[in-house]
Amino acid sequence: MDQNANSSDHLKNKEQILADYRLANLSRNLSIIGRREVLTGKAKFGIFGDGKEIIQIALAKQFRNGDWRSGYYRDQTWMMAMGLYNSVEFFHQLYGNTDRDINPGSGGRVFNNHFSVPNINPDGSWRDLTKQKNSSSDISPTAGQMPRLLGLAYASKLFRQNTELHQFTTLSMQGNEVAFGSIGDASTSEGHFWETINAAGVLQVPMALSVYDDGYGISVPKKYQTTKGSISDILKGFEDEPGKPGYLILKGKGWDYPGLIKLYEEGIEICRRDHKPVVFHIEDVTQPLGHSTSGSHERYKSEERLKWEEEFDPIKKMRDWILSEGIAAAEELDAISADAETEAKESRKKGWEMFQNPIKIERDALVKIISDRSCRCVEQVKEAAVEDITGDLTKVLSPIRKDNFMAARKILRNICGTCAKADNLKEELQGWLKRNYQDAGKSYNTNLYNEMSTSVLKVSPVPPAYSENSPEVPGRQILRDNYDKLFSKYPLLVTFGEDTGHIGGVNQSLEGLQKKFGELRITDTGIREATILGQGIGLALRGMRPIAEIQYLDYLMYAIQILSDDLATTHYRTAGRMIAPLIISTRGHRLEGIWHSGSPMSMLINSVRGVYVCTPRDMTRAAGFYNTLLEGNDPAIVIEPLNGYRLKEKMPDNLAEFKIGLGIAEVLVEGKDLTVVTYGSTVKIAQEAAGQLVAHGISVELIDVQTLVPFDLNRTILNSLKKTGRILFLDEDVPGGTTAYMMQEVLERHGGWQFLDSAPKTLTGKEHRPAYTTDGDYFSKPNAEDIFDAVYDMMKEAVPQKY
Ligand SMILES: Cc1ncc(C[n+]2csc(CCOP(=O)(O)OP(=O)(O)O)c2C)c(N)n1
Ligand SMILES: [Mg+2]
Fold this sequence. Notes:
Blueprint: H1 7-10, H2 14-39, H3 53-60, E1 68-70, H4 76-81, H5 87-95, E2 134-135, H6 146-161, E3 179-184, H7 191-203, E4 207-212, E5 216-217, E6 220-221, H8 231-234, E7 248-253, H9 257-274, E8 278-283, H10 303-311, H11 314-324, H12 330-371, H13 380-395, H14 401-414, H15 422-444, E9 472-474, H16 475-489, E10 493-497, H17 513-517, E11 522-524, H18 529-541, E12 545-550, H19 560-566, H20 570-573, E13 583-588, H21 601-605, E14 612-614, H22 619-629, E15 636-641, E16 648-650, E17 666-669, E18 674-678, H23 682-694, E19 700-704, E20 707-709, H24 716-724, E21 727-730, H25 738-749, E22 761-763, H26 773-780, H27 784-798
Parallel strand pairs: 1-2, 1-3, 3-4, 4-8, 7-8, 10-11, 10-12, 12-13, 13-15, 14-15, 18-19, 18-21, 21-22
Antiparallel strand pairs: 5-6, 9-16, 14-20, 17-19
The chain binds thiamine diphosphate (TPP) and magnesium ion.
């Protein structure tokens, strides 16, 4: 439809109405067939958009180029209505087809009906986001789409209100874009929903959220989900009042085609024009096929409810409306339904063949290698096993790659070692396995990090430069003056967080900068870590350069779900098609007490693979990481050492220009007896201990890994270990935490075990959280004496006569 046609024009346009009716039917047929494909074992799992067809057709009419979607797994009709999804792709998603050219949203990495539209080109450059309909990439955790939705909407506000950004014409049309969200009724019970609703109301951003209220979250009805059983009723306090901007809240019925068309037109116009957040509470929504293929809704819906759902089926209701308005006759509508059903069936066949053919070709190549073999093993058992495995494989009706690989690997075990020509067969089979593993690896194991030329790992390090007169200043001033230059250099750079704006951060590392660069660039937020993260993700997806500040590392726990499920998987789950280069700035390790001095690094690194983790030992290093990260396009966390803001460091001359390379470990003290590996705040303590050890004749080589992910790309630690033969891994995390990670990297991955002359050791914080006061710290975390003793003991054990 013409993007500018209004609803009254539209409701007179027979052709368009019938096209909508056909799409609704097509989508429903896909859901029905999709469910069957799972129940008959062809697909693994299915979740569908049945019952939500008409809402989404109405909604999609208001979606323009440049707009953004952050929705959930019910949105298949919406995506089809925007031309971003078709009936064959529906099956590519369902079967998990890994061909990215035909299944572009995820390359088969996520469940069906999880969508995305690339925001970058294959070379890593940004696409013209104003010329396409954009969809951020869906995740399965309920309400997980909400924090990101806030950021997508917030970007429009920045692009509109900060006139310096009007030059970025391929990112935004001066902020005229709406961020459309969708959520199920039950998911509004989640904290993310409420945090986002409040934040979007405070920020007044063009967020248009549809709640599809089908009365259930899987089997649990609304009375257990929502106070008073109505989300719009309880959102009333958020509504606009004179002089008190809030929300526009609109209600519609999921079966009311003309009503929904008018409703969305009205709501989106205001949302776009005034940057007013809008909630569309769509009631009377059905779910004719039940929640997913994991069960049937007859188990929990009453007879009466099931009957009502049949009666209020939106497609049936649309048909009744068309007939009662005299727009088309029953025969015409029947023909449309039949045609839609045919398309759905043919698409299934096509999708299935496209899924199966490459697997069968792979299988045939394998079987041919076996059947063409000239060598037969004299060991009957082995020969029979090869025959059996191959025979079984050829009998699999609908093979998946696992079948091929299992067979190939089992056959390999049974190829007889005594057979004269066995080596050839072995080689051929090994060749098949290698080639196909490489190919499967591309499908499933790539794109965790940016592998393009925009990777931050391709940014060349530049050391901080000093002159004779370089002053010694408190560390926070280095950050502040570095930020000052960065904000001048990068117009798309913004930072926001709790106390970040007016006072310039709790440690004054942004002191005075809000005054200089304005509230739109250095911004205070509410206390809401999950949506600070989401705000950053949304901005980053839209091409801005956000630094989201989380006040203390311990509070990142509030955002870990979004960090782990959304940010860390964005690039991976879109098979490299989307990127969200969000920088998260936080501070941790050492200060006072349980909630201000944690160093839960193993929790972090093990839940955010896909995000780089920088652990600078001082503020020069921290500033250097920001400088590096802003030249690449990767998400990353920088953990500033909490006790370093007031410690003096030399001010570099080349602020905003010096860059600390990620994955580059640094030898801080050279030594020959034992290697100590650490990072962050413990570096200083280890330096102190190294000094004490020298006085006792022990020469320690101290290495700062600088970033935990990536880890020591140049094998600096391994080289040190070759020299010393002894190694101690040190940090303030729990026992078995990040020290275990570092040990595995060095000893197993880099092969360091071969060079050990003593048992490798770890020295960590205690298992409990760090206690309050300096004494609490002394007895909770490793101190210089502990390090001294640990090293001394290792040396004594190795050379008892000397120590
Ligand atoms: C955080 C989280 N908890 C639980 C689930 C399992 N789950 C998936 S969908 C769903 C119900 C969602 O209901 P609703 O929001 O009403 O959406 P609907 O499926 O009804 O459209 C649940 C509990 C999940 N995916 N994520
Ligand atoms: Mg529901």
